[in-house]
Amino acid sequence: MPEVKAVRTRFEHANPILNVANMARSLRYYVDVLGFSNAEWGGDDFTCVTRDGASIYLSEGDQGQPGTWVWLGVEDVEALHKEYSQRGATILQPPENFPWACEMKVGDPDGHVLRFGSDPKGDE
Known about the structure:
The protein is an alpha/beta fold. It has helices at residues 23-33, 77-87; strands spanning 17-20, 37-38, 46-51, 54-60, 69-73, 90-97, 102-107, 113-118. The longest helix is centred in the N-terminal third of the chain and has 11 residues, at 23-33.
């Protein structure tokens, strides 16, 4: 019997769905403070916010759990820290260098934690 080659579907990307208690409040934070853009098709209970290549779905009431952690790769986490500090973001942990990335943690109004990371610093 001839060997059958498995067909492997290519994954495109992964986008988290975060549960929010109040869509208007969350959108104000993600757009006005974190610099994301709201999808044109977004509604009162479900939308997608994007910034450059990162997308996060926000769902009011029925999907996801409070307190979810999301990792987002960025070009320069220290520059982002400066931007977010000036905009009033909830900085849970300033940039810290680890072997895998230089990361900071930012909280949102629903207790979700966004871990932003860029390449680790080689000199620390």
